[in-house]
Amino acid sequence: MKNIDSSRVTIKDIAKALNVSISTVSRVLSNHPAISEATRKLVNDKVKEMGFSIDPIASSFRSKKTKSIGVVCPRIDIDFHSKVISGIEEYAYQQGYQITIFQSQDNYQKEKEIVQMIESTLAAGLIICPGLETRKYDHLKKIKKANIPLVVYDRSTDGLKTNKVMINDLEASFKATEHLIKAGCKSIAHISGDQEVSIFKARLLGYKKALEQYNLEIREELIKEAKHLSHQEGLNLAQELIQGKTSFDGIVCANDYTAAAAIQTLKKVRRIPEDLKIIGFSNYPISTMIEPQLSTIDDSAYHMGKVAAKLLIQQIEDRDLDLLDYQEVLIKTELIVRESSSH
Amino acid sequence: MKNIDSSRVTIKDIAKALNVSISTVSRVLSNHPAISEATRKLVNDKVKEMGFSIDPIASSFRSKKTKSIGVVCPRIDIDFHSKVISGIEEYAYQQGYQITIFQSQDNYQKEKEIVQMIESTLAAGLIICPGLETRKYDHLKKIKKANIPLVVYDRSTDGLKTNKVMINDLEASFKATEHLIKAGCKSIAHISGDQEVSIFKARLLGYKKALEQYNLEIREELIKEAKHLSHQEGLNLAQELIQGKTSFDGIVCANDYTAAAAIQTLKKVRRIPEDLKIIGFSNYPISTMIEPQLSTIDDSAYHMGKVAAKLLIQQIEDRDLDLLDYQEVLIKTELIVRESSSH
DNA sequence: TTTATTTATGCAAACATTTGCATAAATAAA
DNA sequence: TTTATTTATGCAAATGTTTGCATAAATAAA
């Protein structure tokens, strides 16, 4: 069966039916000011009557503008990213934009390939969380050079001057640590993330800064790195902490999986929160499903997505805004106190 | 600053530089057979040299074809959907398609709006998981009428004849229940999902079928409905079960959150798995993080996404395939036995 | 050789919309 | 009234690619 494609109603059909020019119709549709109320109504009514809708492709073709935002992240099925994307979609849709999603799989080559493709595609803009392998930003610089609005989220990109939306990881981690201190902890351990990654470095820094500020000693043997922050790593490292000779009465974890693991392991030998307080990071679903329920930092991923989209669309629509070179937004996180750290 | 738009290299530039016709260049680019090896090479080299890439918008405009697949789901940040989407993206990207994502928020009006928009957008195809509120499928029928390939995933759509990819929920639930029976359970409870939703109905049915087949009595008082399958509902219903007078030695749960809740609640009064065996559904991350670790059914969400994309692209590219009206694919699930049901 | 067939290339139209420029109509100023 | 200004509309070009049809060149058949 051939696609007979019940021939779409075009702007031309409207014009003919109304005996006005094509340009007039086009102008009504794009809210051009130099149109009388009378014809505006006339056209709009006809548009409805004939069930016309503008052909976005033809429009983009002529105007060289798209309503499509490219979004690149390492993986969609990571809790954090899916929330960010959800936020992006919500805001973008509301503003009349669509989002086209790509996964880099943390693969630098693929990321470059995707970005280049997006560039050649007339995307209205690009929102990206660079992959773990990404150390050079030439691909993103090219995007900027091509005058495509760009927003980077979550991962810091040293040396690349562009719009960024990030969690204030340092401050959040500081807050978490401070919370344990104020709850009475004197010797606090830290299960950190991959120290090659800026946000996990920042979390470690925030932890240290809090200890310093409250005159607690920083003990390297209480700092354990979990490259992937997996539950299993958490189990192992918690075990290491138990077997170490330095005692501790609190643990700040760089995510909730490791924190959950720490709770599981340690509640067999210590009372939580009476003798040991634990706090996680990210507010994953699991944090309310374990016992005791896990205190954590809400990473506002959804909100972050909204802000990223807002920042980008602002750029897209207000091109003259590039009087300012770029802006960096730090998203506030929220300390959520549950049982695992109460006193 | 005006967007000076460093004027893209076009097919025309290539043609001029090589003194061949535009059509020749176009044909090389689309692998038309009637092109000599010599010119093919000539053109391809020049294309590389000048850094040309085809303008997808112009191409779509002329050919009335897009490489963009619309994907509609209730929410992106639900574990299941983010996995499905991840699978879709992976397969689609590999095949040269992009995916454009929308969230219906389980809102019927919004879903219709989105679908209509996708229709007017020349999308190559549409993959959708209809929202909970969706009972009528006129919007999807319109898509079919417009000859846009369509695949529905996860939710059954009674009365709509179209390509579907679904988990064999009935069989999966049967398998889960059978597993408990074979592990020695004689009286099995069920925490079910919203009985307005086909997949949860199927899970209940599978449970009942297994009981019947093994000559166990179906006791309505052991069947509890958790509308949203939340952790909290799970806690409540587990409590109800305890307080009920009918004893039980197994629970089949319609998801892992309620199963986790059941474990939490019941392990205080019973030994799991010795006296009570529990199995969940979906294989969420949490299932390996609780104690005892939760047996469950892996829902193959990622795989489902891949299959959905494959089915769709097959349709897109092989239009004559619509000799067959539509196909329904049932995805096999996997029983994962962990501690909570071992014997 | 001449004719028929195949192979490779070019011409030009078509696609639906946007937009700069021109012009007609209406209003205001002189 | 005439002239200047503003407001509303129309004309036609331009956008980058694809594709049906025509044609030229090359090869095969007669």
From TrEMBL, chains A, B:
SMART domains xref list: HTH_LACI (SM00354)
Coiled coil segments of this chain: none
Record's keyword terms, sorted: DNA-binding, Transcription, Transcription regulation
Record has Transport as a keyword: no
Keyword presence, Magnesium: no
Domain HTH lacI-type, residue spans: 9-63
Record Pfam families: LacI (PF00356), Peripla_BP_1 (PF00532)
InterPro entries referenced in this protein's UniProt entry, alphabetically: HTH_LacI, Lambda_DNA-bd_dom_sf, Peripla_BP/Lac1_sug-bd_dom, Peripla_BP_I
Gene Ontology terms, MF aspect: DNA binding
Protein name: LacI family DNA-binding transcriptional regulator
Organism: Sphingobacterium kyonggiense
